[in-house]
């Protein structure tokens, strides 16, 4: 819907608004004023201010906002307890992708150094995150312990240490089940499956420190994550300093490290590594396996079935954890489980496949050729689905 | 400076991604973090679609997000897109229920009445509130407004914004570019109407846009 007025009143929108600058503006970067002088970039500068204002925090009635947040949290709890979180992804739920760029924080263009007081901004965000924790705790009484999704071997609900303010010092299921070191916990040693997440955190720390050194505001999501990891007793800076892999990072080193998790994920090292660990990455795993009609090497096929195995494992684990009474849930994953567990050889034609082919899925898979090499069902695929039964 | 709330489109989303993972495992704190991080963005976007009912619509969207988060597959970046899609559907439902048209009706006269129009341009914009800025963006033709809001407010990159809108990336890129040009023109008009620096700005830079754009 190109407006006619646009064509007709095509007064130049200032010298400096071109597609490149528009893209910069849309991407959240403030283009540098042109060398020729500020007057030329009036439009861009005005737009930058406008867009920054638009992206700013909206004023709102805090009481209403809090009530709404509580509603959302209550819905989250209800869904968790009803086992709905074990739901199967529909096509519209698959946003996984193969863009390693997205995983490398330091490749992003941060805000230029014109930003005043990066540290003040950091403090504000960290404080906000801390407040968030308190607010949650306050709103819900104690911090909720997921009754269901705990995996075998995970911390029992009663054992979770809770600080006076009600903030859980170790994340209920997250820390034990997928790798990220628990809050405040120093990262585990090399060779541990958790190192992937640890490296990720180290990389975030480097990103954070690099931004500070450069006088930039670190990415807000980095801050949220690091503040979460650091917990409330420690500042993000202190936490990062404590990490072995940070502080001394050379520039550029981060990039290599940050990508590593990805390579492991796709290339697949030991199945065990991802196996027990990262349900969140199942999507990726699963896609690289079952999404592609056969991957070249037998090993890759294994990888695929491993992915399925994990997925089912997680699903079942959740359901069992939720209580055996949930017929609905276990039906779901039971189906799923048998589907992929027994039919690995024809996985390419499995019911999973139609759901999988999507733009992001093909990215990775196209490259890997399509020699169908049905391998035996990975023991793990059938083994994991019912770890808790 | 509010700009730091936004992230570069292809930037790191490690924090969100990790929180998503944990929330999918039942971690309510992680879900609260997600809520805090994304709610303002979704609100800004939905406000551009449904106006003052945005709070209610986004609350509805969050109920759905809370229920379906286990289904989501992807990283933190994808999660933004996923939530934006849900919010958009709820907003469109809302509009359908209302049988009303999306708000693209703000007239340029209204823009002129925004506060501080008599100031110099920079002062006027410096004081532009988030709400006023969102009004300006929301007043664009709908496709342009949505494209700009998804990019700038929700923080999506071009391809993700396109997926949310169900369009081709090129179309969305063009829409957002047109939106920005139109905004720039409106800002100048505003400024020109105030009788200060407008004329010089608008007349001093002939032709270059066509060449560059």
Can you give a write-up of this model?
- The complex is a heterodimer of chains A (389) and B (213).
- Chain A is mainly α.
- Chain A has helices spanning 4-8, 19-26, 42-54, 62-81, 118-140, 174-177, 195-213, 220-230, 236-242, 253-268, 271-274, 282-291, 298-322, 327-342, 352-355, 359-367, 379-383; one strand spanning 94-95.
- Residues 1-15, 98-117, 132-191 and 247-389 of chain A have low confidence and may be disordered.
- Chain B has 2 domains: 1-103, Rna Polymerase Sigma Factor, Chain: A; 104-213, Winged helix-like DNA-binding domain superfamily/Winged helix DNA-binding domain (Arc Repressor Mutant, subunit A), CATH 1.10.10.
- Chain B has 12 helices and 1 strand.
- In chain B, helix 2 runs antiparallel to helix 3 and helix 8 crosses helix 9.
- Chain B starts with 13 loop residues before the first helix and ends with a helix.
- The model of chain B is unreliable at 1-12, 104-113, 115-124 and 195-213 (pLDDT under 50).
- The interface between A and B is large, with 127 and 116 residues.
- Strand 1 of chain A pairs parallel with strand 1 of chain B.
């Amino acid at each position: 819907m190109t407006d006619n007025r646009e064509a007709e009143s095509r007064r130049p929108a200032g010298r400096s608004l071109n597609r490149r600058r528009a893209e910069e503006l849309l991407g959240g970067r403030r283009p540098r004023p042109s060398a020729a002088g500020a007057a030329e970039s009036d439009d861009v500068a005005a737009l930058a201010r406008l867009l920054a204002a638009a992206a700013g925090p909206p004023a709102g009635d805090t009481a209403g906002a809090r009530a709404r947040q509580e509603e959302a949290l209550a819905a989250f709890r209800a869904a968790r307890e009803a086992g709905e979180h074990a739901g199967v992804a529909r096509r519209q739920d698959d946003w996984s992708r193969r863009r390693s760029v997205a995983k490398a924080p330091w490749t992003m263009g941060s805000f230029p150094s014109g930003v005043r007081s990066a540290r003040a901004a950091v403090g504000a965000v960290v404080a906000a995150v801390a407040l968030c924790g308190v607010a949650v705790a306050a709103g819900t009484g104690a911090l909720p312990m997921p009754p269901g999704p705990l995996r075998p071997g995970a911390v029992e609900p009663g054992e979770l240490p809770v600080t006076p303010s009600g903030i859980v010092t170790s994340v209920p299921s997250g820390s034990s089940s997928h790798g990220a070191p628990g809050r405040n916990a120093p990262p585990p040693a090399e060779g541990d499956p958790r190192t992937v997440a640890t490296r990720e955190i180290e990389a975030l720390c480097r990103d954070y420190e690099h931004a500070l050194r450069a006088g930039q505001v670190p990415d807000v999501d980095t801050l949220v994550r690091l503040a979460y990891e650091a917990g409330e007793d420690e500042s993000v800076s202190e936490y990062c300093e404590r990490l072995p892999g940070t502080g001394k990072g050379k520039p550029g080193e981060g990039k290599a490290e940050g990508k590593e998790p990805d390579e492991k994920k796709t290339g697949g090292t030991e199945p065990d590594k991802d196996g027990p660990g990262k349900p969140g990455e199942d999507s990726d795993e699963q896609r690289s396996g079952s999404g592609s009609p056969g991957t070249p090497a037998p090993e890759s096929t294994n990888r695929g079935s491993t992915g399925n195995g994990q997925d089912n494992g997680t699903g079942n684990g959740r359901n069992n954890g939720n209580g055996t009474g949930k017929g609905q849930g276990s039906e779901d994953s039971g189906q799923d489980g048998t589907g992929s567990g027994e039919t690995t050889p024809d996985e390419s034609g499995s019911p999973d496949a139609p759901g999988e082919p999507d733009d992001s899925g093909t990215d990775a898979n196209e490259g890997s050729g399509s020699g169908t090499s049905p391998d035996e069902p990975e023991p793990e695929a059938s083994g994991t689905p019912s770890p808790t039964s | 400076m509010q700009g730091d709330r936004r992230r570069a489109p292809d930037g790191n989303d490690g924090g969100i991604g990790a929180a998503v993972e944990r929330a999918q495992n039942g971690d309510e704190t992680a879900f609260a973090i997600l809520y805090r991080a994304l709610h303002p963005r979704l609100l800004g976007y939905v406000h551009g679609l449904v106006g003052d009912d945005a709070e209610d619509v986004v609350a509805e969207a969050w109920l759905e997000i809370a229920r379906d988060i286990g289904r989501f597959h992807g990283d933190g970046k994808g999660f933004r897109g996923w939530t934006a899609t849900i919010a958009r559907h709820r907003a469109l439902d809302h509009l359908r229920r209302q049988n009303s048209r999306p708000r693209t009706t703000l007239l340029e006269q209204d823009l002129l009445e925004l506060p501080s129009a008599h100031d110099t341009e920079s002062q006027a914009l410096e004081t532009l509130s988030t709400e006023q800025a969102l009004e300006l963006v929301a007043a664009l033709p709908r496709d342009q407004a949505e494209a700009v809001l998804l990019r700038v407010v929700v923080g999506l990159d071009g391809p993700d914004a396109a997926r949310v809108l169900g369009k081709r990336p090129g179309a969305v890129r063009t829409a957002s570019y047109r939106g920005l040009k139109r905004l720039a023109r409106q800002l100048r008009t505003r400024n020109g109407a105030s009788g200060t620096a407008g004329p010089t700005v608008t007349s001093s830079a002939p032709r270059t846009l066509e060449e560059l754009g």
